[in-house]
Specification:
This protein is mostly helical and 387 residues long. Helix content is 52%, strand content 4%. β4 and β5 form a beta hairpin. The chain is globular.
Length: 387
């Protein structure tokens, strides 16, 4: 790793310099992506329940740990105060409560001892636990129209997602593990491990990659089918989904010390490493056609941070394999897909929401910056894990 430290030091300094002014400029926003002029959008009003809205707060807490500058804690608090409306109006909360509140209120409590933030994160954890379906042992992913308004018995559901579980939710289990430790109540822990075990049983392809969406019968728990979701097609390997699995299974290992989760994380990680492009950039889907060569830099950053988390749990040659793969990805992002100028508020470029989303390919995403900064800080040994 020693020969790699120079660029990592440079990246750390560039992150500090860019985020110093980007944070000031956007302190009252809830940003997701940048607009045509390079400025962040603001989801404070019409999109306050958007699942990525906690990552701006997470970035602020990463920067606070790095610099100890109070302004970052203050800006994170502004965002947390905005999001409180969502956790109180539980119609707006889905399985992404971990992304939204564990990185904001949860981080606030762990880093500052803020008791109100503790209550907010515990409230969100209870809402997440309430989405658990014992039939099938899964946490339901998304809401449908019937969750918001009365729907008479017998009327067909417009969007029936009652039995849907998605790979992303492995990350949100961190909130349940924390709630279990914080309250000494095993309910949260048991729900988290049951969902992780369900993912072990139903989300893997034979080649070691994972599915995005699996549907169960919400009454009986019987698995019905799986969907290609945001990837190229059913049976393909959406790269960000692989990254959620690499990182998410590792989180379950860290909180349970059960090696089956670490083995699962390694299984997906090995698939990803064996399918990496020579230049270190990550395709939107590992099984997509050669052309067009869509990328997902966001999935790449999540994957790199997850690989570094695996490397922390192992030793020797195995540690070197996962660490080197993470560094290869991060170095490619740093050299080829970052913008540290004042022309764009975001750092990481060429992020993609979904393979078939024509307006959501090669854009910027706040959470790409979160995971890029998090991964660089891991290489530097800065701060505690927010997961």
């Amino acid at each position: 790793m020693q020969e790699n430290m120079v660029w990592i030091d440079d990246a750390t300094q560039k992150i500090r310099e860019k985020m110093a002014w980007v944070s000031d400029k956007n302190k009252n926003k809830v940003p997701y992506t940048t607009t045509a002029d390079g400025s962040y959008d603001d989801r404070s009003h019409n999109w306050l329940n958007w699942w990525t809205n906690g990552f701006w707060g997470g970035i602020m807490w990463l920067l606070y740990q790095d610099t100890n500058e109070q302004k970052y804690a203050d800006y994170a608090q502004i965002l947390e105060d905005k999001l409180e409306k969502i956790v109180l109006d539980f119609y707006e909360v889905d399985h992404d409560s971990g992304f939204m509140f564990h990185l904001t209120a949860g981080a606030n409590y762990r880093l500052t001892g803020n008791k109100k933030s503790r209550r907010t994160n515990l409230h969100a954890a209870n809402l997440l636990a309430g989405r658990y379906n014992p039939s099938g042992a899964f946490i339901r992913a998304w809401n449908g129209p019937s969750d918001y308004e009365y729907q008479p018995e017998g009327m067909p559901l417009e969007r029936d997602v009652r039995g849907w579980a998605i790979i992303d939710c492995l990350m949100n289990l961190a909130q349940l593990y924390w709630a279990s430790m914080e309250t000494r109540d095993p309910r949260f822990y048991n729900i988290a491990v049951n969902h992780a075990d369900m993912a072990l049983a139903h989300f893997f392809h034979p080649n070691g990659s994972v599915k995005h969406i699996v549907e169960f019968d919400p009454q009986t728990g019987e698995m019905i089918k799986n969907y290609g979701g945001q990837g190229y097609d059913q049976g393909s390997a959406w790269s960000r989904g692989q990254a959620w699995a690499v990182y998410g299974f590792t989180i379950s290992y860290i909180h349970t010390n059960d090696h089956k989760y670490l083995d699962a994380a390694k299984k997906v990680a090995n698939f990803c490493i064996s399918n990496l492009r020579a230049d270190g950039l990550v395709p939107l889907d590992f099984k997509q056609p050669a052309e067009p060569a869509w990328e997902d830099s966001c999935g790449a950053c999540i994957m790199a941070s997850g690989l570094l988390e695996i490397a922390r749990q192992v030793s020797g040659d195995e540690k070197e394999i996962y660490e080197n793969a993470a560094v290869k990805i991060l170095k490619a992002i740093y050299d080829l897909r970052t913008d540290f100028s004042q022309e764009c508020d975001a750092i990481v470029q060429n992020c993609s929401a979904a393979y078939h989303d024509e307006t959501g390919r090669h854009i910027t995403m706040t959470y790409a910056d979160y995971f890029f900064i998090e991964a660089i800080q891991k290489l530097k040994g800065i701060g505690i894990s927010l997961w």
